[in-house]
Amino acid sequence: MKLLSRHEELILLTVLKLQDNAYLVTIKDELTKLTEVEPAFGTIHVSLNRLKKQGLINTNVGTSMSKRGGRAIKYYRISKQGIKVLEKIRDVQEELYLNFEKLSQKILAAK
Amino acid sequence: MKNYNSMPPKIGQWILKNLLSLEERKFFLEDIEEAYSMMLSSKGYPFSLFWYWKQLIKTIPVLLADKINGSTAMFINYLKIGIRNILKQKLYSFINITGLSIGLACCLMIMIWVQYEMSFDKFHQNYDNLYRIITDWEYNGRKTTETLNPMPLGDELKNNYPEITHSTRYMEWSQFGVEYDDKIRFDLKVGFVDQDFIEMFSFPLMSGNPENCLLEKNSAVLTEKTANYYFGNDDPIGKTIIFENNDKKPLNVTGIIKDPPDNSHMQFDMLVHIYNLSHSEEWDSQSWGTYILSNKEINADSFEDKIAGLYETHSETQNIGKMKSRLQPMEDIHMRSGLDDDSSNYYMIDIKDMYIFISIAVIVFVIACINFMCMATARSVKREKEVGVRKISGALRSDLIKQFMGESFILVLFSLFSALIIVYIFLPAFNDISGKEINFSLLNKWHLLISVGLFTLITAFLSGSYPALFLSSIKPVRLFHGKSEGKTKGVNLRKSLVTLQYSFTIVLLIASMVLFRQLSFISSKDLGYDHKDIITLGLHGNAQRIESIRSELLKHKNVINVSKGALPSYGDKGHPTNRVDWEGKTSDQLMNFDWLGVYYDYDKIFKLNIKEGRFFSREHPSDTSNYVLNETAIREMGIDDPIGKRFSLFNTEGVIVGVIEDIHVSSLRAKIKPTVFTYSIYFGMNVRIQPENQDETIKHLQSVWEKFEPVEPFSYRFYDERINRMYANERKTGTIIRYFTVLAIVVFFLGLFGLIGFISEQRTKEIGIRKVLGASISGITAMVYKDFIKLLLYASVFSFPVGYYFSINWLENYAYRFNLNIWIFVLTFIFIFAFTFVIIFYQTIKVARLNPVDSLRYE
Prior knowledge:
heterodimer, A: 111 residues, alpha+beta, 5 helices, B: alpha+beta, 14-stranded mixed sheet, 8-stranded mixed sheet, 25 helices
């Protein structure tokens, strides 16, 4: 299985979270809010392109009357495949985080 | 909610726009605009601006990296196609690569050379604040600029002007005997200087005290080479050497200095205090070079005005003419000396010559680039179909531009490598011709490497631009319609480019022919004396010893006469001096004399024609302080009956005993000056021999040498060879220009050969039809001729006046020059015409002789 980079994973999750309202600005804001570090537009853009190439997200150009005076916006939407990948990532993570408390306690206690 | 007047900075948006692909651009920019305006309304202007640029700085590298990553696949494809194309068209690629490598090699070579010449004197730590004083002098309606200053000038400046911290006089002269034990040499270049010299210039002292090694008047500082000659491995410090100048003076060796590097305009073998040359502290004798060092940047102009009154205040006799001293910064000395007499400025080169070389190299290069472009346009017809197919399968115009640029880049890169190899191989030969010590490692400087890189890029861009832009603009519909644009489009451009090439070649050819003619004129010109069959020997000693060597030499029947003396046309003449006086000299008569120290029978050696009186002779013992003058001197002095009149040089009183016809004592660049011959035994020995059996004569000379000079190995020189060196510089220039011209012609005709080949190949069908309709082979060739001869004629109209102008300009450097006539131009024309003729004939006849059946068959 091909793993996504952490950054790509975060973006994919954000796109999922934002549902119908995922485009550059909102993704950036969301990530800033969560990580407290502001990512650059360029990095998000490049990651989105990469995800798109792998077929994990789709794009559609939509208009929104409430934003930008009705001009078109390129929205991103997670694809079925994208969801599958996220599921897999979650499985791997859960597997690894199993017994996290116990194991970390052991290390801390040994100190 | 949004305020769209508040847009982010335009430059930033422009940068982003160019980094993004077409389809991505719009949304990305608008997204960033939105975020920006949101930021603006919540956080205010300065903060959002700061935010924007922070975003940009982070974004640009990411986008850039992404872009490069995405285009490698296409790049590899271009590379592949490019290399295939190069291999497919072997002749075409060969012509292009050869031409470009020759052009690039010329430019590289010149670049390295310019680098070398610019490095002169830069090793001095005080480079920026060192000045040489040069003096304009007006007298007798004649104006000269020389480095000859009054003795006390330097001290005067140093003591009275706080900005001048150091000063030294500097006079470089050979022909003094320097003796230690049994070793004596007369060919050492002796620099006469003051103590400040050591501190001012960065010739590092190896041993000795830099504070006082030249303070004492009887101290001498030797270079490592000289010290090694006299003392070998012994420590020379504290030893005493004998310095011979009219009398013998003991000098203490107080220091060892490093040999002056090649890129120094001062060259010397030892340094002694100026006192040993002259102790006069008069303002009226101007014969001394002066250097000063300032403690800060001084404005040369305003300083010159400050010191303008010096001469009037100090001169006692007030008869020194109009003088004005100027400061010449160190950087001007090597290439922009501009002096009438600058004989102790070693390896001096005129910046004009440099410009000439640079422009010739550039011309060769431009001719090569034009070849490239011409052939690419001519060839474009062949590639139109490829372009059409590419376009139909979806290639954008920018992709095609990239492809063609890439191809030209590959070619240029190939050429650059072969150019580097050429330079590497031919640099020793170039050094040989130019007499320089340039090595390849000079190229190993970052700014030079960067300029080579840039140069290559520009070349690739220039030579690839036309085909790239032109071919990529072809519309596939029209192409497959059967109407090719390529045959008509670009033809005019090609024609004008070929005309340009013709013009360059013609100008170069004229220039090198004029140069060649002038040089052969110089070597065949009657110099007023006979320079054949004279051998010079480095034998020295006092008068008695010389007489006995002489009588020994004369014992052989082939030795006609023996004398000593400064060699004319060789730079042996003394620095021009105004320290002369004569009977009947009026106070407004100021003349600079060339002077030559000679011995008895000098006139017989050089077959000088005596006009009045006699030459120095043994029968008149007082001749040791008498003088012989040339006609020009007598004419300018304005005296009627010169023989027996009182005359003095350097305050040594004597009388004029003879007048000789004018001879050229310096180069043919200069008019003959007033010249005085004075008795001296300190110059080299000159032997006139019979033209026959010279081997036998030389054997005799050797036996005499060995008898009188058992230590030094025998060495001799024919004067002819030495005189040739007088014009060594011109000859070098001439040779280099000749080689460059040959290269330019080769590159040009190579290109023409390729171009005509392409054109006649393209016209195969047309020629076939013409043949079917009854055209003869000669008629067909004439048709192609017409086109090119027309171009040649256009070029001639433009380039002959230009060539004429440059030739006249250059010849003006010479007071004596050959008669420039029309033949040079006619010859040039015939030469180029003939070559064009042969090439066209060869290329067209191939096509013209084809059977129309073959040439008309479809593809």
